[in-house]
Amino acid sequence: MKALSIRGLTKTYRNGVKALRGIDLDVDEGGFFALLGPNGAGKTTTIGIITSLVTKTSGSVQVFGYDIEHELARAKSCIGVVPQEINFNQFEKIFKIVVNQAGFYGLPRRKALERAEHYLRQLQLWEKRDHIARSLSGGMKRRLMIARALVHEPRLLILDEPTAGVDIEIRRSMWGFLREINGQGTTIILTTHYLEEAESLCRNIAIIDDGRIIENDTMARVIGKLSQETFVLNFREPVSDPPSLPGYVTRMTDDHTLEIDVSKEQGLNAIFGKLTESGHEVVSMRNKVNRLEELFMRLVESRGASGAGGS
Amino acid sequence: MATTRTLGRSGEPSLARAHRIGLETIVRREYGRIIRIWGQTLLPPVVTATLYFIIFGSLIGRRIGQMGGYDYMQFIAPGLIMMSVITNSYGNVVSSFFGAKFGKHIEELLVAPLPNWLIVLGYISGGVMRGLLVGLVVTLVSLFFTHVPVHHPLLVVASVLLTAVVFSLGGFFNAIFAKNFDQISWFPTFVLTPMTYLGGVFYSVSLLPDWAETMSYANPILYMVNAFRYGFLGASDVSLGVAFAIMGTFAIVMFTVVVTLMNRGTGIRE
Ligand SMILES: Nc1ncnc2c1ncn2[C@@H]1O[C@H](COP(=O)(O)OP(=O)(O)O)[C@@H](O)[C@H]1O
Ligand SMILES: [Mg+2]
């Protein structure tokens, strides 16, 4: 069973911004899925559509088989969402925020009180239950939103940049908590622009950039792709059969051009040795710009910029 | 953090039950809000009403003498109660719902499996509660100044309830379109208050020149105030049937419009 299935999803905001240009995504039940991308890529828009805060322009979304167009209430019942920005009433007491949310999902009062206590304890907020939400620190506010999202025990938990602006220690303890919840069977989708976070938590990853999914694979394979470079070699004479280069993944793109994927450990000397042996004369070589790597350069830059800006 | 998840998954609760609980939760939260900020919700109308009773009732009213066959104080008491019901049911919903939009906690309701009509109903219940609470308190205040007979208790309740519903819906409508705090005070200041003052709270429209009397009949608030006054004094400037038909129609049409706007996502969804 798919926890989430998205097909051809597009979103054009009223001001004309094309936030999503047709994305497909599948998340298996029980999965731990990362949606990674730079600021403005369309992560929050995607989550907004899944949770019905944003209306889609076209395409379809199913949550555990329930289409958000035809069975919205059922789809919503399956989802717990931790938004990117704080969206509880800052003047309300912490306990009430969580109890009320349980009520909105139809939990009887007694169960709502029990569950609210349970999750506030789990997120180490029980001592603060009678405080006004505004008085919490940034990390605590984030945890309050996690408790609130879990109180109806959703099958799918969606977190939009849950650890942005949270210090390292709290971030790690949050990761531990999410792993546990996932271990108990809750499907988790999180968005992030920290590769480290996605790598340490998630088994599957989709990379979104400018409203398009540019990569969607297991974490291991994506990390593999990231740590390799592709070189493009041009030969003087046309080549009919690709030269044999054991250990390397190669492709002839035309009869003069060979592409070779080289991992960081492999080095280039062996390639030239083999090509000389087999009589292939190389006239030029360049580094092929890889979309994924290009994206990561930007991710790293934006992280650097936001760090310097102190936001 | 945390260890086990001891509580089982919720089975699928019946829809009607989930809706009832959802509504109860919204209403409880609205009630809690009214009580928590009582200094903004319940106190000001008491102060205003007391001033009106002292100035218009005791000081000026004594010189006016009778109005529509009753002491001026007795005449304006139902009007002042109704005025506070109108202002407060409107004010409650407009500030609570706009506040929820502004503080983004409206999203708590929007992501939950609640139909829009139920969200509207919840906020309207809050507005009606505040309207009735304030109406009750102002009634108590009026008892310090005058004796108010009650001719038709049922009409009193029916008219105040319908009026509170209509103005709660008005507040909701305003909040849907409001983009900032100016836009939630514009309508009450420039439309609602003048219409209330001109809606026969302080005078019988039969005292007005013909043209003004005729114009007054276009003001829906006139019908509400008079139906309510009729419940107390047994006297009215308008036909009761027309008054209730107007209130009923307003309530139904506005509810439909507001729910339709919510379904379209106007002002709340991107
Ligand atoms: N309410 C909105 N109105 C218009 N444009 C928006 C709105 N929200 C987001 N956008 C634009 O849509 C694009 C995607 O934004 P978003 O989904 O928030 O990206 P991310 O969460 O990946 O940072 C951006 O260009 C952003 O400026
Ligand atoms: Mg975002």
Total number of domains of chain B: 1
- Neighbour order of strands in the largest sheet of chain B: 1-2
Work out the strand percent of chain B: under 5%
Q: Which ions and ligands are bound to the chains?
A: adenosine-5'-diphosphate, magnesium ion
| Spans of at least 5 consecutive residues with low confidence of chain B | 1-11
Terminal CA distance of chain A: 40 Å
Roughly what fraction of the amino acids of chain A lie in strands?
A: 25-35%
Tell me what the structure shows:
The complex is a heterodimer of chains A (311) and B (270). Helix content of chain A is 36%, strand content 29%. Chain A is of the alpha/beta class. Chain B has 270 residues and is mainly alpha-helical. Chain B contains eleven helices and two strands, in the order αααββαααααααα. In chain B, strands 1-2 form a two-stranded antiparallel ribbon. In chain B, strand 1 and strand 2 (70-71) form a beta hairpin. The chains are: A alpha/beta (311), B mainly alpha (270). Residues 43-44, 84, 160-161 of chain A line the site of magnesium ion.
Task: Offer a concise description of the structure.
The complex is a heterodimer of chains A (311) and B (270). Chain A has 311 residues and is an alpha/beta fold. Chain A is built from ten helices and 14 strands.
Topology:
The complex is a heterodimer of chains A (311) and B (270).
Chain A: E1 2-12, E2 18-28, E3 32-36, H1 43-50, E4 58-63, E5 66-67, H2 72-77, E6 79-82, H3 94-104, H4 109-122, H5 138-150, E7 156-160, H6 168-183, E8 187-192, H7 195-201, E9 204-209, E10 212-218, H8 219-226, E11 228-235, E12 249-254, E13 257-263, H9 269-277, E14 282-288, H10 291-309
Parallel strand pairs in A: 3-8, 3-9, 6-7, 7-8
Antiparallel strand pairs in A: 1-2, 1-4, 4-5, 9-10, 11-13, 11-14, 12-13
Helix pairs in contact in A: 3-4, 3-5, 4-5
Chain B: H1 15-36, H2 38-41, H3 43-64, E1 66-67, E2 70-71, H4 72-102, H5 106-111, H6 116-145, H7 153-177, H8 182-197, H9 210-216, H10 220-233, H11 240-264
Antiparallel strand pairs in B: 1-2
Helix pairs in contact in B: 1-6, 3-4, 3-6, 4-6, 4-7, 4-8, 4-10, 6-7, 7-10, 7-11, 10-11
The complex binds adenosine-5'-diphosphate and magnesium ion.
